[in-house]
Amino acid sequence: MAKVNRQSNWVRGNCIGRGSYGTVNMAVDKSNGQVFAVKSVDRSSDFDTQLEALENEIRILRSLSSPWMVEYLGDDTTLENNGTTSFRNLHLEYLPGGTVSELARHSGNDVDENTLRSSTWCIVAALKYVHSKGIVHCDIKGKNVLAGPIPGVAKLADFGSAAEFGGASLSPPRGSPLWMAPEVVRREYQGPESDVWSLGCTVIEMVRGQPAWEDRGGHTLCRIGYSDELPEIPTQLSELGRDFVDKCLRRNRAERWSCDQLLNHPFISSSAPLNSITHSSPRCVLDWVNSEFSEKDDEFEEEEEEEESSLAWELQTRCRERIGKLASNSGAIWESDGWVTVRNLICDRAAEEEGGTSSEYPNSMTIEEEMEYSDSIQIEMTNLESFDTDTDSSGGGDSFAVVVERAVDGSDRWRGWNWTMGTRLQDFTVGVAVAVRWWWWWRVDGGEWRTDRCTVAGASGGVIGERGRWCAVQQVCVDAWLAWCQWRKAGGDGLGGGGDCGECGW
Ligand SMILES: Nc1ncnc2c1ncn2[C@@H]1O[C@H](COP(=O)(O)OP(=O)(O)OP(=O)(O)O)[C@@H](O)[C@H]1O
């Protein structure tokens, strides 16, 4: 997906947030059905600062990319309201979980410390990355941390105040007063250490559901900037949590811990979301169809294990988010007539070697009938073959079959099946169906990504659509893991052996 100056081929949806620098709406890309968030400022508005902040955010976000930051998807300018209003727009990954500040308010005093630790880990990991790029966020607070679809996954957002770090004070100081570090309030300095102070305030906010300092205007600013006081650390926070906050809230900024040090603090050091995952996968299908993976390899070649783990988690999360958003939409009509097979592939190495044939699928053949197919389908085939090779390398002798059909009415609707190890693994509709290694996504009707009507054989069984949206999202991950398990346990009980995957708990 092009990441800059996206064509204005999208529709603005409901307003999902307002800040001092803009309005945030849901939006849908008409060309591929992708849901995203769009932050907009009316260009004719009297408030130049709003436009400046948005342009600043666009510039900064273009230069950054981390699994723990909300992803920049592009930007554009649109004429709306019958051509009377011109908006400058920033397109962002949509995160449906709300802000950690809202979550904290709703949970009252009932804080789940595991979630807190892992959200904190995400913020620190994001900050470490941002600081390493010479940028200070300048507005760390609960409202600027968006919750992912799974408790404990969080992403840093709102880079409208962010700035390149020059070692001096930023004038005027940036950020939200109650989260500002003392040196920022005093206009002496604003750097990475100042973000760490704000982080300490944010951890308190995530526990209390309220800002760390009570808001009494100028009086509070005096307390922050010119007293020896520190915010009260909530008693319900564990000893480790209190120590972590203490390392952030040092009035002398030289004594504050860096993000590197904080990542090693026992409060969060083992709280990276799903940090046992070490495999990487494509970032998102639409990026990845065109990417040929080279960018990913270059980008992450030198990253440490921790970052690889973060990436893998991010990828899985994106899969869940994407499909979760779309699982509730209406999709392809599965039972309709009028489909034609355009590509049919069966890999049955063992059968070939033994001179046998696959009895599981009646049209068994290596590659048959190629009437018409898209590039993406080609990718699917290529990778299925390597997938099959992987399984065979462990002596599996499995067969892997894929049939892809296209609607004869030319509506660009696709559907397909794949079978493996003699068992029907998945039915899926395909607009773009891609398999790389053990990961699967599928998209229907040229835009919607769905999971319902995806039947998984073996222990999980059933029609996913009957299980409700969240289950459906989980199930997609099960599907992905299922394939992964199969790859790992090639030739064994990979498909039928659900229930013992240590990685996904399925
Ligand atoms: N990518 C996103 N996905 C979902 N919701 C979002 C997203 N970005 C922003 N929001 C929602 O919109 C609200 C306002 O966004 P944001 O904080 O970026 O605006 P702002 O004008 O810069 O705010 P502030 O007043 O804090 O400076 C957020 O608090 C959040 O509720």
Automatic annotation (TrEMBL):
GO terms for molecular function: ATP binding; protein kinase activity. One of its GO terms (biological process) is signal transduction. ATP binds at residue 39. It comes from the Eukaryota. It holds the Pfam family Pkinase. InterPro entries: Kinase-like_dom_sf, Plant_MAPKKK, Prot_kinase_dom, Protein_kinase_ATP_BS. Keywords: ATP-binding, Nucleotide-binding. SMART domains: S_TKc. Gene3D superfamilies: Transferase(Phosphotransferase) domain 1. Residues 10-268 form the Protein kinase domain. PANTHER family: CCR4-NOT TRANSCRIPTIONAL COMPLEX SUBUNIT CAF120-RELATED, F10K1.14 PROTEIN. This is Protein kinase domain-containing protein. It comes from Camellia sinensis var. sinensis (China tea).
